[in-house]
Design brief:
The structure is a homodimer of 203-residue chains.
Chain A lengths: L1 E4 L4 H12 L7 E4 L9 H4 L9 E3 L5 E2 L2 H11 L11 H28 L7 H21 L1 H6 L3 H16 L10 H10 L3 H4 L6
Parallel strand pairs in A: 1-2
Antiparallel strand pairs in A: 1-3, 3-4
């Protein structure tokens, strides 16, 4: 399998972390790719018209996307019910993934404002609204999810790990650890897992 | 169950279409809600820090989001393996949902550019890049997915139905049917399903 990948993409990181946790990473060939929202890379666009990474190409040529679908596929390939729990446990894991993915989407919109607009065309209220969603998500994680995070390794905590790693990588200046000591401690511990340390974001 | 809903939201529509197809719509109380990205509605924000619709509140008080998670939950409630196929058939349905959801995300970003920025602060290249993703997705649907669409009613075609309905609703001026006769014919037929006609978007 070929994974179109960027070491700066938190969504691509989710896929590699899942692959590592499932013992599947040696079956995946990582293909470095750009994820510029203004200009699609041809090799990806032929498989996925949104041109986004991660995109996974199977050995039969078919393409899978987005990160949620790829992660669930890898879980099924490893027998299932590991990173995506079956039964009633499934919904908590998936809601936690949604929480983290939504916050990541907000981070990325805030970042695009800076990357793709000259300063005079940026709208601070828009960036603030995005970051407000991120901060309230972090507060909810600190208040309601800390025991779940400590007790599980599945797609939920992995998505949260990708979110917090991305904040450290691109938004270090916001100081997300302030006032969230339990989440910060969990993040530091989780970052030590081999699946996480070998996929730490780089430019 | 309570569904925070707006009749203009294509993602909320997916949920109601799935509920109708599964015969579950009478178990869902629809709560009209606003989905303004700049200002979160309190009732939703308490359940979902991203403040987005659709958000589903279960009878035990717990919240489910986003649309993908809610749709899959409803499918499980109805016995499973109907809107979300099991086994190998699952991946095609999920990839098709991703295709449609990604194009919807692009539509919404293009629309926000107009809604939330004064004209002098809009970047036409940004809007064009978003709409280009939408158009290439439509081309892929016309070329590669038409037989699948005609043969299946599951979360994939439902997401495509929500996408095409949203284009008619908010982007009628782009003339998406031009050059895509098979997709247009499928859309017109699919729109006649009771699940679709009772959920047609309104402001």
């Amino acid at each position: 399998m070929k994974l179109f990948y960027s070491p700066a993409s938190p969504f691509a990181r989710k896929v590699l972390v899942v692959a590592h946790e499932l013992g599947l990473s040696e079956r995946i060939t990582v293909v470095p790719a750009a994820a510029n929202p203004m200009e699609k890379e041809k090799a990806i666009a032929q498989l996925n018209p949104a041109g986004k990474i991660p995109t996974l190409q199977l050995d039969n040529g078919e393409a899978l996307f987005d990160s949620r679908v790829i992660c669930e596929y890898l879980d099924a390939l490893a027998g299932g019910d590991r990173m995506f729990p079956a039964g009633e446990a499934r919904w908590k894991a998936l809601v936690l993934q949604s929480l983290a993915d939504e916050a990541l989407d907000s981070c990325i919109l805030a970042r695009y404002e800076q990357l793709y607009r000259p300063e005079s065309m940026r709208i601070p209220d828009w960036v603030d609204a995005q970051m407000h969603k991120v901060f309230t998500t972090l507060d909810v994680l600190e208040r309601d999810w800390i025991h779940y995070l400590a007790a599980h390794v599945n797609i939920g905590p992995i998505a949260v790990g990708a979110l917090l790693g991305y904040l450290d990588f691109r938004f270090a200046h916001v100081g997300w650890r302030n006032g969230r000591p339990r989440l910060a401690a969990w993040a530091d511990g989780f970052a030590g897992r081999p699946s996480m340390s070998t996929t730490a974001p780089t430019t």
